[in-house]
Amino acid sequence: MLLEQQLFGTFCMYLPEAMGDAMDEFVYKLVLLGEASVGKSSLVVRFVQDQFHNHIESTIGAAFFTKSIPVDGDDVTFEIWDTAGQERYHSLAPMYYRGAKAAIVVYDVTDPASYDRAHKWVDELKSSGSGGTVITLVGNKVRILRKLAGAS
């Protein structure tokens, strides 16, 4: 859970700067993007519900979560959109990342091709005209990589 807290804490640190005077509301739209099976849903469920499941069904379209965390005496609420990674849902992604103050682009560290595709998500976000969106690239499934390294 510490990694998730650090990740979302980083957003809390940079969002006021990105938001300017709009910080009064303390509600931020956050979107997770990436290819299918990179672990986007696992990250969200771990952050929101403090649970981990070895298998989570594929997201269809998108899933919505909220999470409030205290920051400097105020509650900051994240409205989190966990998007489906399958190619057939790619055309829906702009609907979810439009207006997002932060985006987490996730890739699977055991799948180098997912890293290359993650950069395409970052490029798409940048070209969408959503200036001011805080974008973070996250490598997921590090434990699997460590297990593979220990087995050899």
Structural summary, described in words:
The protein is of the alpha/beta class. Helix content is 39%, strand content 27%. It contains five helices and five strands. It has a five-stranded mixed sheet, sandwiched between helices. β2 and β3 (74-83) form a beta hairpin. The longest helix has 18 residues, at 2-19. It is globular and about 50 Å long. The mean pLDDT is 82.
Short description:
With 152 residues, the protein is of the alpha/beta class. The chain has helices at residues 2-19, 40-49, 93-97, 112-127, 142-151, and strands at residues 27-33, 62-71, 74-83, 102-108, 134-140.
Strand and helix map with partners:
Blueprint: H1 2-19, E1 27-33, H2 40-49, E2 62-71, E3 74-83, H3 93-97, E4 102-108, H4 112-127, E5 134-140, H5 142-151
Parallel strand pairs: 1-3, 1-4, 4-5
Antiparallel strand pairs: 2-3
C-alpha end-to-end distance: 28 Å
Cα-atom radius of gyration: 15 Å
Count of strand segments: 5
- What is the H/E order? HEHEEHEHEH
**Backbone shape:** globular
The biggest sheet, with number of strands, parallel, antiparallel or mixed sense and barrel status, is: 5 strands, mixed
Strand order of the largest sheet: 2-3-1-4-5
Give the DSSP E fraction (strand runs of 2 or more residues): 25-35%
Report the average pLDDT across residues.
Answer: 82
User: Which structural class do the helices and strands define?
Assistant: alpha/beta
- Helical segment tally? 5
Helix content: 25-40%
Low-confidence stretches: none
